[in-house]
Amino acid sequence: MGQVKTEAWNGPGEALDVARVREDFPILGESVHGKPLVYLDNAATAQKPRSVIERVARYYETENSNIHRGVHRLSEQATRAYEDARGAVRRFVNAAQDREIVFVRGATEAINLVARCYGGANLEAGDEVVISAMEHHSNIVPWQIICQEKGAILRVIPIDDRGDVVMERYHRLLGPRTRIVALPHVSNALGTVNPVKEMIADAHRQGIPVLVDGAQGAPHAAVDVRDLDCDFYAFSSHKMYGPTGVGVLYGKAALLEAMPPYQGGGDMILTVSFEATEYNALPYKFEAGTPNIAGVIGMGAAVEYLTGLGIEAVSAHEDRVLAYAVERLAGVSGLRFVGTPARRASLVSFVFGDVHAHDIGTILDQEGIAVRTGHHCAMPVMDRFGVPATVRASFACYNTEAEVDVLAEGLEKVRRLFDGV
Q1: Is the pTM of this model over 0.85?
Q2: Is residue 268 located within the same domain as residue 156?
Q3: I want to staple 341 with a disulfide (CB 3.0 to 4.6 A). Which of 74, 174, 192, 346 is the partner?
Q4: Is 394 helix (H, G, I), strand (E, B) or coil?
């Protein structure tokens, strides 16, 4: 069927040697149901290159120790590797200082931290929090919780039929009672690339801070938090070729300094008595307890891997695969895209006749194709477009146009099995 053209996010870039890149990922040599694996579920989690797997193993084999508190060699090695990863992440997003990089369990915890610590300290009854209608549940529920506690009001920027935010409505929502704006860099359900720099500038003109959910942004294009001028930026390791269970909250130092700690325990303190506690300096004030040391070190390796490939080259390659997928799948009779945003990154969501998304995903799995089916933790998006679920194919640096062809052929098998699609 015909399809509205969508701009590439990043434009032309250097060619990526995809055949060589694929050799870096051991799992891509696996078979599923006797078919070569075609992994198109990268928005849920990306696969891991050998360098990340080996770096995590090396930590456990030769460096395993707790960090920051030990004076023995293993602890010093582990601490250095952990803090080196913080520096790598700082450079990756161009933060001004290492202390602005807080390690958390993932983007979800990062957003919860800001909702609890910034929202809890700054929201009062009648105040407003502005989010968008395309949010992942992780950028809805934490704000609902804190708004309910404080008597604040959650305001929602609507999205249009293409899946773009309605900017005129956004401007009207910002007001004297708005205390924070929280919005996604890229929609995980639609692929919409939001004009976050413009939206941040609009909010800042009224003195309103902005949190950007970058879970789907950081893996796919260069992120410069100082150029964006965002106040907070949250992202996860596992979506950018690193281990699960670790992520990052970037925050401007002045805001983080003013916020109370998120949790109490070891490493977030300087002194403790039964009368009072003196908290540690940034970023450790927000890193209570023994962290996911191996995960952080693995994330550092993932950042180094992406940097080595060249994030611009990765972005340009993914844009080419995405453009091919939009064109190729638009020719599949009965397929309808859900979301045709002006700027899109890394994924397509669609429905196929009257066949339920889960049935489509099950049949594609028999062909070795891994896609995501369901509401993608974005139920309000499904409600907005009047569908119970979609099929989502999402792309990474190792995906190819040939894999898109395999997906299209798999959909033809769905048609044959469900006569009348």
Answers
A1: yes
A2: yes
A3: 192
A4: strand
- The runs of H, that is alpha helices, within 59-132 are 73-93, 107-114, 120-122
- CB atoms under 10 Å from CB of 202, counted, come to 17
Based on the domain organization, do 402 and 287 belong to the same domain? no
Is residue 303 in some structural domain? yes
Does some domain include residue 148? yes
Catalytic residues: 377
Same domain, 82 and 20: no
Per the listing, tokens 């069927």 go with: 1
Kindly report, residue by residue over 376-410, the tens digit of the pLDDT: 999 999 999 999 999 999 999 999 999 999 999 99
Tokens of 143: 């704000």
What's the alpha-carbon Rg for the chain, to the nearest Å? 22
Give pLDDT tens digits for 18-33. 999 999 999 999 999 9
Q: How many domains does the chain have?
A: 2
Of 292, 308, 324, the last residue of a domain is: 308
The CATH number covering residue 348 comes to 3.90.1150.10
Rounded Cα distance, 85 and 91, in Å? 10
Q: Is 29 exposed, middle or buried (0-12, 13-18, 19+ CB in 10 A)?
A: exposed
Dihedral over alpha carbons 71, 65, 279, 92 (to 10 degrees): 110
Query: In angstroms, how far is the first alpha carbon of the chain from the final one?
Result: 13
